[in-house]
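Pilot study result, target chain (248 residues):
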Amino acid sequence: MKSIFSWRGKTHRGFTLVETLVAVTIIGVASVGMLAFLRQGLKMYYADRARLMINRDIRSFTGKMDSDAVTANFFCLYLDYNTRSSGSPATDAFLVDGQVGDFLVLVYTDPALTSSGVSMITDLVGYYREITDTTLNTGPVHRFTCHLGTAVDAKTTAIFTILANTTNSAACAASDKIVTQLAQGLATTTTLSGVDEVAVTTTNPRLFYNRQNRSIMVRAQIAESLNEVKTSTSNVGNTYNFTVSPRG
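Predicted structure:
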């Protein structure tokens, strides 16, 4: 007797459209959540990196300036890099006690070189802020050094004249370096009333403040962009104040 075997093909059940849509939705939600998590992680990474860069900039800026100031004999403060003289005939447009500016010149004299008993100027070191964003009042801070080929009499030669000298101007330009990329000036002009300071409102705060013609206060916010391309948005900043005084 022959056995008759009946072979039936196995039935393969596929996914229904509803099941597919549910799976795609779950995967999409999970992907969105993962992207949001990664984005937040990258934002924290760039913020931490920016803070480290700010601390580096502050240490570099304050270290250089403190070293320069402690060996300087006196300083001149100007409104900005381009505003160094005023009037006709031109005179030094340096600022006085309580005023603020974006261009500081530290002056060095040599007691071995004198004119009528006055030490002559041999070197200059300048710090100035270049405002590149007028809306936020921000920009890089530059530093330059200038060794004078011929020492000059501080009493008879104005600082703006020394800086305007062709040879000196070329030396300043050649040594010009950016010490911090993004700084916002916070110093405001004040009037002195006894030992108290009464702030005067200003629409354009500066970087340096002249303290009784003896010290320079630096009031600023150093910032770093969270983006590779520096813009006026998405910045991390740190506000700081410090004072330097030439030895006199």
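One observation from the pilot: The chain is about 30% helix and 40% strand. A full batch analysis is planned for the follow-on phase.
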